[in-house]
């Protein structure tokens, strides 16, 4: 049987998102470890599936490919409780997904990638670069805190793909040099996400 | 009657997206000019609507606010031909929207903002910054060209919010120093978007 295949790098928060959602939704899939750092996304056979040469990449049972972690979340969550049924709540779910890719990932995940993830980057970021990531990253965390100090979840009143998308890099923000001490709303929410049914940590594989 | 209100900066591609879509869908709205360059998004009354202090911001007829241009597109297009009815096509529509915010806007729109839009930025970008935006921006344009050299539209076989999102800054890419001569697929698609029913240019206001 041809099921879903996920091309994925284990230590990438973007790749963790669809792994976590598929496990929580009970969708079986095959994992193919794919390391951009070893050039594996620039090979012709991979670029034929994703011209943007990035992981994660989801290949559907019929062989068609879907790039972009947050597009996968919306695609897979449709018709499940992980996508809000209320139209406005769904709109705010979209809002958090775009916020994640524009304001959060480019600062918090990028700081982590230079400070903790890629051996060839560690020690090479300049103090000015790090300060820039931290200034913008703390601003993004402040926007999250404003929501989470008064609400259990990011979109509407229930756990959704918005929480999965933001959890992916927030829960390892310390690896990018971020300190969440002054963000009690975020810390409580991180614990709630980790207690959802079927939750698995980032190093989980099917 | 309280209808939709859009807080918007006229010369911003992100703000153009919901203006264009709402006009094409026949949704009336009130426009409130809001200039981040004059600090208008950092005022308390604006931050109460959008803690992220950004335009565009859409306020619904019931008074609730929705930030993020691409979230507005998905919210407003639901149930219309501008969001693909086919599930996979809808997935690829999501994909292009996230691609736009992650790979396209931060390079092509940012180059334009420094080279042509904000008077206090013009002339201040370093050659290294400009080269970085161009290197990444041309890569993003290459991903678009690969799709558009063989297809009329980005997602599925019809005009959708994916086309609106990418049109917003691609059609003014020259203002960021980008040359589309070698991108005939993109140039043909720009002309197709500008020929869709109800199309209005970026300087249009309701």
Number of helices of chain A: 7
CATH fold call of the largest domain in chain A: Glutathione S-transferase Yfyf (Class Pi), Chain A, domain 2
Helix content of chain A: 40-55%
SS-derived structural category of chain A: alpha+beta
Low-confidence stretches of chain A: none
What number of structural domains do the residues of chain A give? 2
- What is the top-level CATH class of the largest domain in chain A? Mainly Alpha
In the CATH hierarchy, the architecture of the largest domain in chain A is: Up-down Bundle
Number of DSSP E strands of chain A: 4
Termini gap of chain A: 16 Å
Q: Largest contact between protein chains?
A: A-B, 33 and 33 residues
Q: Taking all residues together, what is the mean pLDDT of chain A?
A: 96
Please state the CA-atom Rg of chain A, rounded to the nearest Å.
Answer: 17 Å
Q: Which word captures the global form of chain A? A: globular
- The proportion of strand residues of chain A reads 5-15%
The oligomeric state is homodimer
Strand order across the biggest sheet of chain A? 2-1-3-4
Order of helices and strands of chain A: EHEHEEHHHHH
Q: How would you characterize the largest beta sheet of chain A?
A: 4 strands, mixed
